[in-house]
Predict the 3D structure of the following.
Amino acid sequence: MQKTLFKNYIDFMQKDFYYQKWYAHNADETINLLHSSSTKGLSEAESITRLQTYGKNLLPGKKKQSIVIKFLKHFNDILIYVLFAAAVITFFLQHYVDTVVIVAVAVINASIGFFQENKAEKALQDIKKMLSLKAQVIRSGKRLEIDASELTLGDIVMLSPGDKVPADLRLIRTDNLRVEESPLTGESLPSEKRIDVLPEDTMLGDRINMAFSGTTVSAGTGIGIVVATGGNTELGKINQMMSEVEELTTPLLQQTAQFGKMISIVILAGAVLIFFFGYIFRHYQTQSLLMSVIGLAIAAIPEGLPAILSIILAIGVQNMAKRKSVVRTLPSVETLGAVSVICSDKTGTLTKNEMTVKTLETKDSEYDVTGTGYAPEGDILCNNIKVDFSKEIILKELIQAFNICNEASLNKDEEGFWQINGDPTEGALVTLFHKADIDHTLLNRISTIPFDSQYKYMATLVENPDHNIIYIKGAPDKLMEMADFERTITEEEPFVKEHWERQISAIAIRGQRTIGAAYKIVDKNIKKIDHSDIHDGIVFLGLAGIIDPPREEVIIAVQKCKEAGITVKMITGDHADTARTIACELGIGDGTKALQGKDLEQMTDKQMQETVMHCDVFARTSPEHKLRLVKALQAKGVICAMTGDGVNDAPALKKADIGIAMGIKGTEVTKDAAEIVLADDNFSTIVAAVEEGRRVYDNLKKTILFILPTNGAEAFLIIASILFGTLLPLTPVQILWVNMVTSITISLALAFEKLEQGTMKRLPRPPKTPLLSGYFIWRILFVSILIGGWTLALNIFLANKGFSINFVHTITLQTIVITQMFHLFNCRSIRDSAFTGVFFSNKAVWIVCALLFVLQAAITYLPFMNTTFGTVPLTLAQWKYPFVLGIAVFLIVEVEKWVFRKIDKTRLNLSNAPSL
């Protein structure tokens, strides 16, 4: 009967996600509801039954995609389908060389994409690694160590310092228990745990009577009862969110896919029309006409574009790696250049995730502390003047008190970074002690009362020549209740609580958390202390204001983002006052408006979509809130990036158009959910990455502007030859050679073009910006007709002179390639003149031109190449045809660019002219 009641209850609880508010039940009620015992736990038989019913404490897995499928996906391109159709037709027509070359081109394209973008999906597996391997439980009244996967609902779990929490627990007993939850909640300080009942609307980061799976015990001990395992834990919910997140297609891939469909439709429709025209009006033989139409299709297809796209993006990846950005997926390079909103976590991303003392207060003075993080570098200032500690006796004693009542230590790691061992707040106070220009000799500690969350202070007894002193460090409100006196410059005076309350409020407004220090002089013979020794005679020394400070370089980075038209939004699990203060220092938001997670929970999706566009600071957010905010931005048509370092950021990172993780302090889960990892954890590196993203996109546009006239010229030649009944100017295999040699040699040079002036001053391009603008279409048609028309004229001229078909094909092939080489110099700048100061800045241009000459010489003079491609050797004098036409094309396009610059200038002048 009891088992049935339990099963019915749990079934009900699991059906209603929002009803599982164990933090709103008291400890005894929770134990009774789960039919367990705080002293005996579950019986072995009961635990086995529950494991069979509800499953092991494991996260659900995900089926992996085979390498073969990953490779074959790179053939999923409509342009490649058209190529394969051409290969099939040539095979049945017994043109086997053409078939092999066409298939080889498709395979090369797929291989480049596969090897350059070896995308590994490991985020879910890394979440599983966060689960502890072992757990200390009470079963049948005995303490046992079991595999964490064997935990089930109702188990009683023991927690000790250093333990990784094995499941979600409702705490039933705590002893100074503190749990590091920053990867899950974004909270910069360990959470002090209690067992008190909490309201039902308590946010995740404030549930102090819960210990969550995957978090770590930093101090104290505790006992909890398992209330959720596996996929039902908070970590499991993140796992589920990540597996449900649909991966977005990047803007560039969307544009190229749309472009590919458009090109394919035009090519197929044109090929069919030309076939029927040639068959009906020119009475061509079916086989020769089919080869001509196949040649047309191959000519019009920019089959080298997928390969060159992958190569250019890969070069961008290498450049970004030099700038401390590790890119995991190729299209992410370009996507970052298109973002208009960057959503950033606060702790560890915008801030250092290293608690720092910024303010010190004594009764007579206020002091500012410079320097950030755990590095003991900085000064203590009063009215912007470095203090003289020989005249600051109270300040000196305040700092010593903070250091004496302290269990943390400061040291450098192997890489030279300063780190603390112990509590982050205590680490900040140790760093303060080393910044101060005072004697750093440690006093002899005789006795210590450890920090206790019930008493809210720590006390240490130290020796003194004339008497002993008890130094006390703790929560200001507790110390103020105990204090009888306060230390001033001249003497100890009666304690004035109102003064210190005002000071605490002033520090809190700055987003800083306060900690106080006091002392009590005791007899020399006192060698041991307890709580009864510090209830009277306490002298209050002062306060310290502590904050996780913003990174200095982020302020500049945020300003650069604004100049580039990019909005930075802070989404954090920390408190609203702290978030607002940090945001204000960084220049994010208006310094006043900040919404909390509980505000977001009251909003519909429509309301959130409007709110997210007008608010830049969000505090006390959970992983669900972050995910909803990203979705809301995307619903408004915004291309957004999400940065973060904690597990709580992972679902939002995966959903965002571009996920950016911190490489040093980021969890493995976050890194593997992201597309880009910052190797130096520096938000300002994002600005450099945006620059690289915009440079890559600009160079891709230049590459398209360069490649497509090749296809256009070839298509023009073939269409004209069919319409006018003349000689087919190139064979399909020669067309493939032209397309590939221009794609994988000379067009590569454009990948190395530098960032143009003013790029980071322009607004991000709208998501639906077409890949080909009106000017691009005009320029492609203009150059295609220019090259194709002149080549056709040359083709007819040479044919009429009685030259062989192979000779005419060779001259035609060389003319198209050489004119495109000259056109490369036109394309280095879309609108500006080629004759600028950067003419010789790109060495790659000259290298690929030299490589092109080698390849063109090979296809012209090597016998096996002559046989394969149907070419013949040329004399030196015969090279004049392609080079004269190439120079002419270059000069004409430069004149065209000059005309359009004049038109642009005229339009700008008219738009700026005052209205009448």
